[in-house]
């Protein structure tokens, strides 16, 4: 198949999912065309089946805001025509589903009929999509996609509750490439922590919804009774406040802020516990990646996280903001080697349900159905 993929190119989970799917289907021999305003970080430069098309936004002084959606629709039209694409798959509704609707109309006018799959990822529905400035356009473009998928049942339900949806939404969960993840070596561990110290880890874009201040507070409580280090991966608006809180709680020497790094797999591979106390999380790809590395997860009981983390088997789920309960669970998992090993093995086992091969095939089946039916 010749498949167009539209995504945000940055470190967010939707861009990661879209790019990994493109890499995976490219390796299977499909011709993949990724359309975005910059080359996505995870795009495999050695995969000759995966091509990148940059959206060219022209800077024109009349516009205070440059019309990105127009440029994106035009890029989709051009790519579909030039590369003779069979299908377009857009990740994250805003602004992609809307721009895809326009592209489809323009193409139909030229006698080219192409199905569009929209995948809803989370904040496109739960946060940004709720803003009055976007809501009607998001609802319209969901209803007018050829097929819509959501990354969890929770997100599917929320979409139906929050919007006037008049069509089916299929759940296709996030996936993980199990081959990329695994336990790391002892030497790498020693660069971060002493042999007797546990390593806790958090990966996110440090936005308010991730509650990174809770991460620091949970760690500070754990650190009172358990020798440990906290590794913070990523960057974003809440980082200065998190750094300040670490100082205030006296754990600044134990909390390592590593910023944005493409070495997430290696860091997870030497971690003992993953913290994800988000306000909401439609799926929690970061938690799944931790589990694929054999790292148990302490997370909030919110959104789609219960569909990923199995409470009491591969981690624990506690109410949003319940720092003390999360710290107690963390201490328990880290209390002895055999408890930790049990949680770690169960995390690895659970992650296998979300293997890339399985989910990749689910998307291919959906594409084929739409192509056959168009
Ligand atoms: O809002 C974000 O955190 C960014 C967004 C994205 O575009 O990466 O993440 C959402 O999509 C991920 C991939 O499907 C999910 O794993 C995240 O749970 C989801 N984030 C939220 O719902 C907060």
Descriptive notes:
The protein is an alpha/beta fold. It folds into two domains: 2-175 and 355-373, Glycogen Phosphorylase B (Rossmann fold); 178-354, Glycogen Phosphorylase B (Rossmann fold), CATH 3.40.50. The chain is built from 14 helices and 13 strands. It has helices spanning 13-27, 68-83, 93-109, 123-126, 135-143, 153-162, 186-190, 212-225, 239-248, 264-269, 285-292, 323-333, 337-351, 356-373; strands spanning 2-6, 31-36, 50-54, 87-91, 116-120, 147-150, 170-171, 198-203, 228-233, 255-259, 273-276, 297-300, 315-318. It has a seven-stranded parallel β-sheet with strand order 3-2-1-4-5-6-7, with helices on both faces. Strands 10-9-8-11-12-13 form a six-stranded parallel β-sheet, sandwiched between helices. It starts with a strand and ends with a helix. The structure holds ligand GMT. Ligand GMT binds next to helix 1 and helix 4.
Task: Summarize the SSE layout with pairings.
Elements: E1 2-6, H1 13-27, E2 31-36, E3 50-54, H2 68-83, E4 87-91, H3 93-109, E5 116-120, H4 123-126, H5 135-143, E6 147-150, H6 153-162, E7 170-171, H7 186-190, E8 198-203, H8 212-225, E9 228-233, H9 239-248, E10 255-259, H10 264-269, E11 273-276, H11 285-292, E12 297-300, E13 315-318, H12 323-333, H13 337-351, H14 356-373
Helix pairs in contact: 2-3, 3-5, 8-9, 8-12, 11-13
Bound molecules: ligand GMT.
